[in-house]
């Protein structure tokens, strides 16, 4: 049974590393927001595994706070991106804008 | 509670946690491998809901045998699940919408796109675009 | 001498009316739901004397919240059908498991990047609540994300992973419609279900 706990920890660590790589690679700020979201989900899982391993309910309120916090983060980032891209074109929805030029802009600021 | 019963609960719990961790790992691989934002969102949404629900079940089964805290911590677990189920779709929708509208989607990988036709026709009527944008 | 007093009276009357109109915005079922959340937050579901006080306090807090931040009412309301509701939850859970395995297979499959589609799904019931529930359920199920929702026409635009061509897009559309049927039968009003059955019957007639 102990090996299974170790396997769980290793799987979560590898997953977190992968989402860190995506966080560094980008390419756009929304991808980063998404990978932060995923990282948050992994840390929720990790905290849950800790609580289950120690049979310890003291960290459960932390899970509650984290599950609400992720929402606020990604929504505010998305709203920020939406407002900035809408501010410098007023020709309606910019659906056919090329991916590259927005990516470049984001690379400058971030 | 008898000793064997607790043992069985522990095994079920650890299997749930293992499944959650495995889903997380696959989501991590998906985050790296998938080509554009929206496909990555599909990969990331798995541990956020199903993985978390499995983990919560696992925690519940592990904590349940403890008489003094056992049953009563279940309320917090239910709340975590509820909040996650309600908030993840909202956040996902907003990110997907902004991602689509700022063109962060690879059109060469789309089979059919019925929203593009719709938005195109909205551009000409313009009145439809107003109530569609915000 | 008399002037300010009548003014005060009028103002008081206005205030009473404002409070009463705010009270009219309170929806008891929603307040009860908030009370349950409050009690869950404070671990109040256990036999101890504080629990009753927590319940009353939670109800008062939820009433205050609804008076300060009034919410639009849920039209045309909903109704929980126990058997179908449980079936709905099980159906969504089963879908989540199946779709997780499918998405995992897409992730682990070597080869070129996976293709996907954006499909438009028209709801067959004209209830906002059911549309929201379908949107939540589709987002929860891995492999489909809501990109856009058009409320006046009740159309959801869903991004489906792994739908490479028209046939697979049509199949995904059918899946969303099946989900809608389950949800409408689970929490829809009688009118919603009647609408749905009318559409289903006409579809069967045309095919």
The domain tally of chain C reads 2
Strand order of the largest sheet of chain C: 1-3-2
Number of strands of chain C: 3
Count helical runs of chain A: 4
Structural class of chain C: mainly alpha
Ends apart, CA distance between termini of chain C = 82 Å
Overall geometry of chain C comes to elongated
> What is the H/E order of chain C?
HHHHEHEEHH
SS elements, strand count of chain A = 0
Q: What's the end-to-end separation of chain A, in Å?
A: 45 Å
Mean pLDDT of chain C: 81
What radius of gyration of chain C results from the CA coordinates? 24 Å
| C-alpha geometry of chain A | flat
Percentage of helical residues of chain C? 55-70%
The helix-strand sequence of chain A is: HHHH
What brief labels describe this structure?
heterotrimer, A: 110 residues, mainly alpha, disordered C terminus, B: 134 residues, 78% helix, elongated
Concise description?
The complex is a heterotrimer of chains A (110), B (134) and C (207). Chain A has helices at 2-25, 29-54, 60-87, 99-109.
Structural account:
- The complex is a heterotrimer of chains A (110), B (134) and C (207).
- With 110 residues, chain A is mainly α.
- Chain A has one domain.
- Chain A has four helices and no strands.
- In chain A, helix 1 runs antiparallel to helix 2 (29-54) and helix 2 (29-54) runs antiparallel to helix 3 (60-87).
- The longest helix of chain A is centred in the C-terminal third of the chain and has 28 residues, at 60-87.
- The radius of gyration of chain A is 18 Å and the shape is flat.
- With 134 residues, chain B is mainly alpha-helical.
- Chain B has one domain.
- In chain B, 78% of the residues lie in helices and 3% in strands.
- Chain B has helices spanning 3-33, 37-63, 74-101, 114-125, 127-133, and one strand at 110-113.
- The longest helix of chain B has 31 residues, at 3-33.
- Chain B starts with a helix and ends with a helix.
- Chain C has 207 residues and is mainly α.
- In chain C, helix 2 (28-41) packs across helix 3 (50-68) and helix 5 packs across helix 6 (166-187).
- The longest helix of chain C has 27 residues, at 82-108.
- Chain C folds into two domains: 2-68, no CATH class; 82-206, no CATH class.
- In chain C, a hairpin with a 4-residue loop joins strand 2 and strand 3.
- The chains are: A mainly alpha (110), B mainly alpha (134), C mainly alpha (207).
- Chains A and B meet through helix 1, helix 2, helix 3 and helix 4 of A and helix 1, helix 2, helix 3, helix 4 and helix 5 of B.
- Strand 1 of chain B pairs parallel with strand 1 of chain C, so a sheet runs across the interface.
